[in-house]
Automatic annotation (TrEMBL):
GO terms for biological process: phosphorelay signal transduction system; regulation of DNA-templated transcription. SUPFAM superfamilies: CheY-like, Homeodomain-like, P-loop containing nucleoside triphosphate hydrolases. InterPro entries: AAA+_ATPase (IPR003593), AAA_lid_NorR (IPR058031), CheY-like_superfamily (IPR011006), Homeodomain-like_sf (IPR009057), HTH_TyrR (IPR030828), P-loop_NTPase (IPR027417), Sig_transdc_resp-reg_receiver (IPR001789), Sigma_54_int (IPR002078). SMART domains: AAA, REC. GO terms for molecular function: ATP binding; DNA binding. Member of the two-component regulatory system DctB/DctD involved in the transport of C4-dicarboxylates. When activated by DctB acts in conjunction with sigma-54 to activate the transcription of dctA. The modification 4-aspartylphosphate is found at D54. PROSITE patterns: RESPONSE_REGULATORY, SIGMA54_INTERACT_3, SIGMA54_INTERACT_4. Keywords: Activator, Aromatic hydrocarbons catabolism, ATP-binding, Nucleotide-binding, Phosphoprotein, Transcription, Transcription regulation, Two-component regulatory system. This is C4-dicarboxylate transport transcriptional regulatory protein DctD.
Length: 451
């Protein structure tokens, strides 16, 4: 989203500077490089400018640079300049896909006009690519966030609507519902899709480093800050910053963050100079931020600023009808991940899965699918708890049997001292002896019992 730039490569310093200056006069943003290797490091698929390079240079020459750039992206425009009037070189360059070829001497006006045309074409190419990617990803939303319940239909509808804007967005939902999945989908259908998405977990940031982590710092800003460093916000330039668990952001930092949201500038630690920041913020929360405001842990002004575009991601309890299909999809995904193709979901298991409660939401359901595929009990807590209880009950029973047996032995099989000592009724002792198979093995002296 930054201005497209001309990357100008020339090993001759004077030529480099005079050309750059002249192009600057025609309103172009120019970066200069003394070698082709240097410029190659900056070229990527989303590069939005144009490369202007001398042909004859020590090290990598202009023709090789052209070839290398076209390996990265054949649609990046490269303009080659030669001082030698070499027709053969020109022909070769044309064959290699050069955008244009200029002979020295040339006027800056001429070069500026060609460069501008090249950049216009490049921006068209990038825009078309973006539209194609967005169209693909739009179809993708259904696959990424499946579900036929109204809650999911509404979520996808709002997601697409908000995705078409550049508004900062708050995503709310219980743990494991897929807030991060929604955030990534939002980024992917936005105009920033080809720029980075930087995810920051506010709950995991070390308190003492948090500001420099986010805002960056200048050299000497604090002991140990030897070199200047970009913060995470600046790494997200042109893209999206995802602030996970915004409710965990320290209170003092919330005021600074609010300023960033309002003014779209940041100031690195140890500097007074605000730097413009072109990013979209997406924040997530599983805690009720209104409640956090009420107890003074979250700033009301920050909440109001964030709460403009809001997405509520429903819990599985709020979309129970989606559970079977979602589970099947997660099983399919897990099977692919673990390279198993023989996984079946027995109907009884499906019924249990559908009726069970899933407090950990999709994350928990996904774990269950993984466990099934790995041949483990897919219903860990809730259904293995009775098994635990069973084992515990067995242990308790064995212990109880031992106590009764030894009491019976101690009293020579006489019942009265036994039930009195154990503080239970005669009837209860009788039932337990029956249950534990103790009646026949011991010498019995109490006529009551024998009867
Ligand atoms: N609709 C979905 N389809 C498939 N997998 C999903 C879906 N939603 C979430 N998941 C999976 O569930 C897990 C939890 O998702 P995610 O991390 O997005 O949840 P969250 O709401 O951000 O969780 P937390 O509140 O703990 O941060 C991830 O493994 C994710 O891939």
């Amino acid at each position: 989203m930054s201005e497209p730039r001309v990357l100008l490569v020339d090993d001759e310093e004077e030529m480099r500077h005079s050309t750059a200056q002249a192009l600057g006069l025609f309103g172009l943003e120019v970066d200069t490089f003394s070698s082709a290797e240097l410029v190659l490091e900056l070229i990527g698929y989303s590069f939005s400018g144009v490369v202007v390079s001398d042909i004859r240079m020590p090290g990598m020459d202009g023709m090789t640079l052209l070839q290398r750039i076209r390996e990265v992206d054949a649609e990046i425009p490269v303009i080659l300049v030669t001082g030698h009037g070499d027709v053969q070189l020109a022909v070769k360059a044309m064959r290699e896909g050069v955008y244009d070829f200029l002979e020295k001497p040339f006027t800056a006006q001429h070069l500026a006009a060609i460069a501008r045309r090249a950049m216009d074409r490049r921006s068209l190419v990038l825009e078309n690519r973006r539209l194609r990617a967005v169209a693909g990803k739009r179809d993708d939303i259904e696959a990424r966030l499946p579900g036929r319940t109204q809650a999911m239909v509404d979520l996808r509808y709002r997601l697409r609507a908000i995705g078409a804007t550049d508004a900062d967005t708050l995503i709310i939902g219980e743990t494991g519902v897929g807030k991060e999945v929604v955030a990534r989908a939002l980024h992917d259908i936005s105009a920033r899709a080809d720029r980075p998405l930087i995810a920051i977990n506010c709950a995991a940031l070390p308190e003492n480093l948090i500001e420099s982590e986010l805002f960056g710092h200048e050299a000497g800003a604090f002991p140990g800050a030897l070199r200047p460093r970009y913060g995470k916000f600046e790494h997200g330039r042109g893209g999206t910053i995802l602030l996970d668990e915004i409710g965990s952001m320290p209170f003092d930092l919330q005021a600074k963050f609010l300023r960033v949201l309002q003014e779209r500038v940041i100031t690195r630690l140890g500097s007074n100079e605000p730097v413009p920041l072109d990013v979209r913020f997406i924040a997530t929360s599983k805690v009720d931020l209104e409640a956090e405001v009420a107890v003074g842990r979250f700033r009301a002004d920050l909440l109001y600023r964030l709460n403009v575009a809001t997405l509520h991601v429903p819990s599985l309890a709020q979309r129970k009808a989606d559970i079977p299909l979602l589970f099947l999809q997660l099983v399919r995904e897990a099977a692919a991940r673990y390279m198993r193709n023989d996984i079946e979901v027995p109907p009884e298991l499906m019924t249990e899965i559908a009726e069970r409660s899933w407090p950990g939401n999709v994350r928990e359901l996904r774990n269950a699918a993984d466990r099934l595929v790995l041949g483990l009990d897919p219903k860990p807590e809730e259904t293995s708890a009775p098994a635990e209880r069973q084992r515990l009950a067995d242990k308790v029973a064995a212990y109880e049997r031992g106590i009764i047996a030894s009491a019976l032995a101690a009293h020579g099989g006489s019942l009265r001292p036994v039930y009195e000592q154990l503080g239970i009724s005669r009837k209860t002792l009788y039932e337990k002896m029956q249950r534990y198979g103790l009646d026949k093995k011991l010498p019995v002296t109490d006529g009551d019992y024998a009867a």
